[in-house]
């Protein structure tokens, strides 16, 4: 068994994430995570390891306690922390955003109400893309999560947590030889299966570089990611939010004169007409977001999710 501590840049209130169901997978029950910890498989070099994460509950001195049944070397713990940093957002420093956007007419109040929020993602961009493709055009997200779990069971490494199976996420070399027709039997459409297998093959062949996508400028990321089969403009912008980085761009995506995607939602949040807002005006609206566009949008998203929950509770 190994255990260690992973510190995060403050402020970070990870418990806020427990109210955002989209951050978690099929096997997770956010209501139990507070006491039982957050358990999931992560890649550690060429192997996969199940970790359980506990948060200390202190937004100003945030620390995560990590436990695993395996005995890991120092180098393996360092590799595990790379995955955990992306999942939890520990390396993101949002303090400049609080300073520059505190008086923003839309974002300012959200920064106060959701103080310490950092977006959760999955362990690497490949996992994020897999799930994004599976859940596209599906309104019932629990079903999409179950489909993704079945894909993990079929193509990922078989792991056990106690007496329960908890499969790892498949890696490109594990998924590249899959038959899309067999993926179809697990729930996703045949075309989605083709997209998943095609992406895995492109990564193994070196046609798609995940490391470069994590490091490149947001505009370049958007241009590359939307050239991957199965990733359209809206999905490309959503995936940009999942790099564990603060920056992003929101390219215009008009169809029949109507703005689509994240840009539309941002403009609407500022009380303007998304379909008749110039590029110059849009940049003025988000001037306080500069360098922290991805993080800023997450505050609006989390606020939206929480307000929806409140309305459902009233109804």
Summarize the structure.
With about 325 residues, this protein is of the alpha+beta class. It contains 15 helices and eight strands.
Structural commentary:
The model has no long low-confidence stretch (mean pLDDT 96). The chain is built from 15 helices and 8 strands. It is α+β, with helices and mostly antiparallel strands and 315 residues long. The chain folds into 2 domains: 2-113, TATA-Binding Protein (2-Layer Sandwich), CATH 3.30.310.20; 123-243, Orthogonal Bundle (Endonuclease III, domain 1). The protein starts with a strand and ends with a helix.
How many individual helices? 15
Low-confidence stretches: none
Percent of residues in helices comes to: 40-55%
In this structure, how is the largest beta sheet organized? 4 strands, antiparallel
Query: CATH homologous superfamily of the largest domain?
Result: Hypothetical protein, domain 2
Would you identify the CATH architecture of the largest domain?
Orthogonal Bundle
Beta content comes to 5-15%
The CATH topology of the largest domain is: Endonuclease III, domain 1
Number of strands: 8
> Reading side by side through the largest sheet, how are the strands ordered?
1-4-3-2
End-to-end Cα distance: 47 Å
- How much is the average pLDDT? 96
Shape: globular
Number of domains: 2
**Helix/strand class:** alpha+beta
